[in-house]
Structures
1.
Amino acid sequence: MPGPPRTRRGGERTERHLSHSGSVDGVRCPTCDHDDTRVVDSRPADAGAAVRRRRTCPSCGGRFTTYERVEPADLVVVKRSGDRQPYDPAKVERGVRLATKNRPIDASLVTAIVQEVDRAARELGPELDSDQIGRLVLDRLEPLDQVAYLRFASVHRSFDDAEEFAREAERLAGH
Ligand SMILES: [Zn+2]
């Protein structure tokens, strides 16, 4: 049985106003647009990562279901220039994919690396610099594939600039 959802800043309960059966919380009825629907049942879903709520609309009598999930905390990447931007796992994925292009590394492994980097970054966060992200990737590529590691190592200095990074990685991947 998996534990509760892992959130670093999860200490605080934020559903006071939602947790009682019959409470009103303003979710709009999908049938008639009435905005005063009621929660008639709440239960954990997705092994505790979400809460599933059955709702009823006092206006039309319709019933529907909503899910509430924890939104991952926002991570901020501080670039060398001092600029800050939201952490974007898609950039990490693009970089890893390019670094591992034509290497014996399965796509599912790339996905696993991106997820691990994401998790590690959240543990370091909520603020980290682009070098830290580069190192998180490198730590995972090194034991897997030396070529991919070297490709990524040689370009991760450009990680600040996603476009430059992609260009450089493509060049190294032989394009
Ligand atoms: Zn309704």
2.
Amino acid sequence: MPTLFAVATDESIRASVGLVLRRRYEPDYRVADSGDVDDALRRLAEYRDAGEEVALVVASFRMPGCDGIPFLVAAHSLHPGAKRVLIIDVGDVSAAEDLSQALTLNLVDSYFGQPWASPEEELYPVVGEALRVWAREHQLRYDKAMIIDSKSGLGGARMRGWLERNSVATALWSTDDAEGRALLEAHAVDTDILPVVVLYNGTVLADPTDAELAEALGASTHPTRDRYDVAIVGAGPAGLAAAVYAGSEGLCAVVVEHDAVGGQAGTKLQDPQLSRLSVGVTRRRARGAGKSSGQSARRRVRHRPQRGCPTR
Ligand SMILES: Cc1cc2nc3c(=O)[nH]c(=O)nc-3n(C[C@H](O)[C@H](O)[C@H](O)COP(=O)(O)OP(=O)(O)OC[C@H]3O[C@@H](n4cnc5c(N)ncnc54)[C@H](O)[C@@H]3O)c2cc1C
């Protein structure tokens, strides 16, 4: 079971962070905490030596002996895959510059403030997003689309990129792979026309167009009305914001997108820079807000030099 590890030298912060993490995540993760930086690093080194996975490390920004950012740097050298979250004292304006620099330099992934109004509002969204990204990178997924292409084929890789940009978990096999051959056999498909796409519901498509694939996955590719009040071309942040605004004014709006909802944010899903948009609005939140509130608002989308830490 992967571990969520929290370190805070302030006893009340350590206790409350440990409590809320256990309350929400303990069935799926082991939650461990420490009030001492040396102890924390020793235990993280033990986990590494035992081959135990650490998904998330949470640390107070200010701790005697070793501040949170250098602690997270040391923790990262022990568990490079673990997401790193800082706890900032609300009102500690002097933290802003270090925090900004650490986010920019990819020394931390995100942060939340304490005290928090409620964990649901301020802590769980940050931890949840960090774990979503961690799980995407480290855990097995249920692939909703499986593409089989020839070893030298480019179409399958392009198709996979497009599906992943649109949040469809996709596997790509070559016809030389045992998995690819098994899929073709199971669906009685020959290799005359490649790539072949097998969807989660058994639908098999031979070299489909983007539109055919989108439709097979339930996306809307044609207008459903004769007339719209507003047509917005491009479902990037600007287009989605315009659609939400139009919908909130009672206008019937259609958003036309030819690649991926989310715009540059959606099309750079693999970019580490974009997984740290928590300073403003997260990619996912921006895209989620567009998808949910927009739908209820009558519009359619077509388609961070601190004290150092010992190293181990
Ligand atoms: C690597 C990288 C890192 C970034 N990091 C940050 C960051 O940390 N913080 C931050 O705030 N911003 C960041 N940005 C910038 C941010 O992503 C952009 O400012 C923002 O996406 C611009 O939004 P937009 O809606 O104006 O345009 P876009 O996001 O470009 O969206 C335009 C949309 O229109 C679609 N489109 C274009 N032509 C057509 C057509 N003819 N028909 C249909 N659809 C069409 C495109 O497919 C696209 O989806 C980053 C950008 C990049 C590339």
